[in-house]
Design a protein that fits this description.
By secondary structure, the chain is mostly helical. The protein contains three helices and no strands. The longest helix is centred in the middle third of the chain and has 18 residues.
Length: 64
């Protein structure tokens, strides 16, 4: 999820030259507030069942 957020931040906010640290902080803070106000969420399309197939080595079978 962090990768998605960083990618969005880069595309929507950091895709231009920013002159100084203070401007960067203001822009990033404004971007974050806007996302929170809008209630932006991640649309997961990779289900647990898909993960168990594709990432089988990370989901060991537990026998009882």
């Amino acid at each position: 999820m962090a990768e998605f957020e960083l990618c969005s931040l880069n595309r929507q906010c950091l895709n231009r030259r920013i002159p100084d640290k203070e401007t960067l902080e203001r822009e990033a803070d404004a971007w974050q507030r806007d996302r929170k106000v809008k209630g932006t969420k991640v649309d997961w399309r990779f289900t647990t069942a898909d993960a168990r197939i594709k990432l089988n080595h990370l989901y060991p079978v537990v026998e009882i």
